[in-house]
Amino acid sequence: MTVSFAAPSKKIPAVIITGFLGAGKTTLVRNLLMKAQDKRIALIVNEFGEMGFDGSLVNGCADPDCSADEVVELANGCICCTVADDFLPTMEMLLEREQVPDVVVIETSGLALPQPLVRAFNWPSVKPRVTVDSVVTVVDAPAVAAGKVASDEEAVAAQRAADDALDHESPVEELFADQLTCADLVVLSKADLLTEAELAAVKQTIRGRVRDGVEIVSASHGELALDVLLGRDAGAEDDMDLRLSHHEAQHAHDHDHDHDHHHEHSHDDFESFVLPVRRFASLEEVKAQVETAMKVSGVLRIKGSVVVDGKTAPVLVQAVGPRVEAWFAAGSESHSKLVVIGLAGLDKHSVQAALSEFELVKR
């Protein structure tokens, strides 16, 4: 009798999306989900802040209390988890589901080094079933054109100082270099804000900082074709010798390693607080009032959800520096709160005055 064995099923591809605060990661992910209606995507979002709102910024996932032991089904059949330092248990939980995902998309916090995350895919319970299809680094093109790594470097510093989970204190420029070193694809975001010549200059700058063969593409408003983001089959977890971080490369070459880097700001230089907010008359008013609040001295970031009169869908808000994004998220629940992150000692009353001039939303 001849016995035949089924060929092992193909590994589930995982895409790691990294990039600094404000680079456009969430917008890119949101567009990816909207275009992937026929795929069951597990979305893992690395949260930050008093309220885990980064996960809710993805259209359809608006549970600010989503945590590592909770799985939220998105409107298009996707799965959303917010995780901090328990990535492996989350992956194992997803793999134990009756319907495993077709693709795993991981949006990092922007401060996490991609290298340790990629190595986590070599864990015995994960490696046989999942592979890193690609590491996608989203780069703020206008910032690079201006000689910076992020449009609002103070906001990045604030996020950095407020994140107690960070176990590295590398300068931001080194983190940027590490994100590029690990990349299989670099997305130059906000391309619509640059001329063709400026964009070409940014591309040339980035080209000199990535490995040979890494593709560099430009995007406006997070719009990229699905086949650009998926299907690269990089197997990054098996290719880490070519993706070493700055400190790993130093160690590999027997250089002295100094663990005593210092932040430009200490943790106590920053603070965050949550404000209940009023009802707004329109989406335009939301944007205008948040823009006003962002101009209060010391404010670095505002995020959350608000209510517009006559609308059942809440408005999700994401503001960093001069950029304010606000959009209706159908099917989502509003928590009528905004998280404000900024320098210690900022005038909270001025921020509240800009956002809460009328009645507070009753919960």
SS class? alpha/beta
The tally of helices reads 11
Strand content: 15-25%
How many domain regions? Answer: 2
CATH architecture verdict of the largest domain = 3-Layer(aba) Sandwich
Overall mean confidence score, pLDDT: 77
CA distance, first residue to last residue: 69 Å
CATH topology (level 3) name of the largest domain: Rossmann fold
Q: What is the name of the CATH class of the largest domain?
A: Alpha Beta
* Cα Rg: 21 Å
InterPro entries: CobW (IPR012824), CobW-likC_sf (IPR036627), CobW-like_C (IPR011629), CobW/HypB/UreG_nucleotide-bd (IPR003495), P-loop_NTPase (IPR027417), Zinc-reg_GTPase_activator (IPR051316)
Domain CobW C-terminal: 270-359
Keywords: Chaperone, Hydrolase, Nucleotide-binding
Protein name: Cobalamin biosynthesis protein CobW
Would you kindly provide a written description of the structure presented here, covering whatever features stand out?
With 363 residues, the chain is α/β, with parallel strands linked by helices. Helix 10 (283-294) packs antiparallel against helix 11. It has eleven helices and 14 strands. It folds into two domains: 12-252, Rossmann fold; 268-355, CobW-like, C-terminal domain (Hypothetical Protein Yjia, Chain: A,domain 2), CATH 3.30.1220. Helix 7 links the parallel strand 7 (185-189) and strand 8 (215-218). The N and C termini lie far apart (69 Å). The relative contact order is 0.16. 26% of the residues lie in helices and 23% in strands. The protein has helices at residues 25-35, 87-95, 114-119, 141-145, 153-162, 172-181, 196-207, 226-229, 246-252, 283-294, 348-355; strands at 12-18, 41-46, 72-73, 79-83, 103-107, 130-140, 185-189, 215-218, 270-276, 279-280, 299-308, 315-320, 323-328, 337-343.
